[in-house]
Amino acid sequence: MQSEKQKIAIVLFNLGGPDSQDAIEPFLMNFFTDKNIIRAPFFVRWMVAKMISKRRSKREAGDSYAELGHQSPLLENCLKQAKALKDFLNQDENEEHEVFVCMRYWHPMAAEVVGKVKAYLPDKIILLPLYPQFSTTTTKSSFEDWDGQARKQNLDVPTSRIFCYPCQEGFIKASKDNILEKYISMRKKHKHAKPPRILFSAHSLPEKVIKSGDPYRLQCEQTAEKIVEELNIENLDWEICYQSRVGRLKWIGPSTEEALKKAISDNVPVVIYPHSFTQEHVETLVEIDVEYRSMVQDMGIIDFEKAETVGVHKDFIAGLGDLIQDALQTENGCVDDGQKALSKLTKYATR
Q1: In angstroms, how far is CA 9 from the centroid of its own chain?
Q2: Overall pTM surpassing 0.85 (yes/no)
Q3: What's the confidence (pLDDT) of residue 338?
Q4: Among 240, 159, 236, 242, which residue's Cα sits nearest to residue 204?
Q5: Integer-rounded Cα radius of gyration of the chain
Q6: N or C: which end of the chain has fewer CB within 10 A?
Q7: Helix (H, G, I), strand (E, B) or coil at 119
Q8: Does residue 321 lie in a domain region?
Q9: What CATH code is carried by the domain that includes residue 215?
Q10: CA 103 to CA 65: how far, in whole Å?
Q11: 63 lies in a domain?
């Protein structure tokens, strides 16, 4: 008699995004009241969040999200990744996999997804952030939120956590493919210009977060270096920069805007690749492909193209599958890709 298949629940984490114009302000409120985002007592955090979300929701409803029909495509794109991953994993006839998407600041959030996972009756749970690089503001925050809801709903199942994968082979190969497509096309289009500069653009963080020991910037650098190595283009012109700054704090840089202005000054075309994002959403589709594009065209850049995020690229999905198999076989339930920076994660791990 054939034994029952082991049931594995995989939970994919991301920030989430508003699904209507009315959702923009509460989404921002959820975001800015997170203690991992604004490190202040709750009352102070709530007051600051209220002020920022009220102001930004009016601007983003009329600008950023208006470009996208007043809703974020993030959930839709994450669900596509979940389906691709489930199809890939279920080629193994010895296990049954179900993939859930859990958003941090808008629906479906942990309270709802914990209930769905519990109803699935899994033998094991794998927590997998769709952020390749670890940060206290993303992965740690998502894991803390999940743990709190799991305790509330008495979800007690062996759980493994994949903290990060800044240099995972499938992620790097998929990134290389998407960059190379734009790079080769631009070289053919501008045969007599200087070779394109590749700008690796990651979401920025306040400098004080990095100084507290958060390994995010170091891992963003490791990702970019690994992609450059995989591209294997002699004398490649490339640079790392950071986008999406808000508020008056000092943020890590150089900013993407500064890097683009430098490229214009150096008279080079640009291929920009958002290497801290794994699917398209407002910061890639609007901030990069609309706002930055408009800015550099007005300033007379030779050419500007955005390479697509990895999305459902077969190598990226296979890479996530490899991480999951490693997690199933790792006794302590903590999986990474061997980077030295991850020694810092022990102070942030939520078990």
Answers
A1: 21
A2: yes
A3: 38
A4: 242
A5: 20
A6: N
A7: helix
A8: no
A9: 3.40.50.1400
A10: 18
A11: yes
Tokens of 346: 């022990």
Q: How many residues does the chain have?
A: 351
Please tell me the distance from the alpha carbon of residue 236 to that of residue 13, in angstroms, as a whole number. 34
Cα separation of the two ends of the chain: 37
Q: Which of 9, 43, 68 is the last residue of a domain?
A: 68
Domain count within the chain: 2
Collapsing DSSP states into helix, strand and coil, what is residue 35? coil
Residues 332, 160: Cα–Cα separation, whole Å? 8
For residue range 60-117, what is the model confidence (pLDDT) as tens digits?
655 788 889 888 999 999 999 999 999 999 998 889 999 999 999 999 999 999 999 9
| Confidence label for 306 from pLDDT (cuts 50, 70 and 90) | very high
Domain containing 41: what range? 21-68
Where does 181-293 show beta strands of DSSP type E? Answer: 197-203, 237-243, 270-273
- Report the largest interatomic distance among the alpha carbons of the chain, rounded to a whole angstrom: 71
pLDDT-derived band at 299, boundaries 50, 70, 90: very high
Instruction: Please tell me the number of Cα atoms within 13 Å of 173 on its side-chain side.
Output: 12
